[in-house]
Structures
1.
Amino acid sequence: MESQITLSQEELLSIAPDVRQQTREACSSRRVAAGPEPVLVQEDPTDPILPSPYDDSADAMPCRPVESFLNSMPVSFAQASRAPPPGAIVVQDPYEVYLRNLPPGENPVPLRVSLESAAIRAIEGMFGNKARVSCILDSGSAIISMSEGVAHTLGIDYDHRLTIPMQTANGSVTSTLGLARNVPVRFGSIVVYLQIHVIPDAPYDVLLGRPFDVLTSSSVQTNSDGSQTITLYDPNSDLETTIPTLPRIDPEFTRASPDPTHRQNCPSLGFQAGSRI
């Protein structure tokens, strides 16, 4: 029983399913969960030559050792919450691979990346020939809404019987004050009629949600410098207009605000006009 028996790798893997499975896992690449600490992926230099993890047939050709495979690739770091298991191969950053394979003396092409943040865009709408109001573009909203201050300042009436519950970012729920029907608003050279929900204590004046996009068949063109234009179609007149968007500004209306064109303190009304950013 103490005599030694020599087996080839193919024979060993064909009669030992557990060994074959471990070999497959050692050679297979994996996704590693992202985490705060960079971890250098390394491999045990004593690992033997392992057969291909993709072919269990007797004709399978052995693959290179994992160490040799890793050494042939640029070293990469993985953001991981814990060290990856032995044999794990972390997918590398494409730009890092490009830099490491760049011929000597050749300057790399600069990589363009996204901004850390970009300003929310808005357009100005003329409400009933009374005042221009900054309207935030938000295609992620299912409704068009305005602050209570805008409705009260401009004398826009609304039906208080039609309210909907609104959930805020912190999870609390509040109800709208009502629905203003068929509010005429001029954008550029066209006038559209909107169904607008009135919101108490809204952190904006007007928010144009998906119903606005659907009505106007809006098309947004965003440029690399951050500027943006929006093309609007009027289904009632078949007119089309393209207007530039502007960065969002602070709300300019409060519940008891006077004519916003004054933009000054009015002690008799207890209102202080808002200011632009």
2.
Amino acid sequence: MEIFANYYQYFLRGTRTTILISLITVFCGFLLGCVIALLRLSKNRILNGFAKLYITVLRGTPLLVQLYIVYYQLDFIPYPKVNIWGVALERALPCVIALSLNSASYVAEVIRSGIQAVDIGQSEAARSIGMTNGQTMLHIVMPQAIKNILPAIGNEFMVMIKETSVIQYLGISDLMYNNGIVVTATYNPLPCYYISAVIYLILNIVVGKGVDTFERRLKRSER
């Protein structure tokens, strides 16, 4: 507790960065995952093949490798020199891009399974009253699919909170990066890792409770 009392500002700063990166990543990963899922369900062989290749490559290679590839491959992009919550986007955006691309490969399969779980009879009924395929997907299929996959999306958020720890290797001041600063300053690593573990655990418990609450409200609204 003495270490936390003396260096709590480092842990709080790192936690703030971890939460921000996780939120942005899950949001972007969900949107991109929706696109990849629709491509995966497409009858067009080229689009379907691209989606399969994307998912295979992103799920089949380590996240840390993807992080370094994106960081060095996109170093020509003039990222905005803006700070949000004390996080420099110029350094953080390459990490967000890599994490979002990786997250989308998992989210896409979750969304695809959610879409396929919706009774096909509802799509046929919607088209029978004159709705287009796009309208059917947007107004009939997707709302039901999202309800079905909500626990899995919440789980992806929880996973992403932990996976953001890899951005420390690019010098992003997340929880583990600041943990390293405290370890160097105190020469006492074990308590620092216990503190970080507890913080990650608390974050995931909060997210899990939030998802459970939202899911219960959705079920009540259905009644």
